[in-house]
Amino acid sequence: MKRLLLAATAVIGFATALPAAAQFQKPEDAVKYRKAGFTLMAAHFGRIGAMAQGRVPFDATAAAVNAEIVAQIAKLPFAGMVEGTSGTEKGQPKPNVWTERAKFDAAAKKMQDETVKLVAAAKANNLDQLKTQFGATAGTCKACHDDFRVQ
Ligand code: ASC
Asked: What number is the average pLDDT over the span 33-53?
């Protein structure tokens, strides 16, 4: 049993260490995967936004739960940014995601870092702090959209 567990752990470790492209059989699979991730992020980030903007009452517990989800999901979609999946329609990635990959990766990291701070802000149980960090996080979403997403 213990050996089986070790083997399973090794397989999982190896699979997650594979290059991003190797995780998908077809480019369409990668596109579907990343869109699913961004959709979930937007849904849960939006619930915090509703509080930050006063559209729903501030609920610190709900804010923290949603922020945790956002921070976890924020790690995922970028593996789906595989070469050959840029486009010219609204919302699709521009080719510079790949020609300026270091800049793109830095922008993604910035957003991920802000989502970690969002968790801390939500847990602080202070609406002003949540509002400020919601704005900072949304700013990193927008910066990447402005540079790398078809308008
Ligand atoms: C959101 C959301 C985004 C960002 C972006 C910020 O709530 O779904 O993609 O904020 O609109 O400008």
From this structure: 98
CA distance 122 to 74: 16
pTM equals: 0.86
Span from the CA of 62 to the centroid of ligand 1 (angstroms): 19
Pocket probe mutation, ligand 1, options 39, 45, 70, max atoms within 8 Å of Cβ: 45
Contact, 116 vs 67, CB < 8 A? no
Is the pLDDT score of 1 beyond 70?
Answer: no
Q: Give 141's contacts (C-beta < 8 A, 6+ positions apart).
A: 45, 111
Write down the mean pLDDT value for the chain: 91
Nearest to 77 by CA among 114, 36, 34, 41: 34
Relative orientation angle of helices 27-52 and 127-148, to the nearest 10 degrees: 150
Q: Do 97 and 149 touch, CB atoms closer than 8 A?
A: no
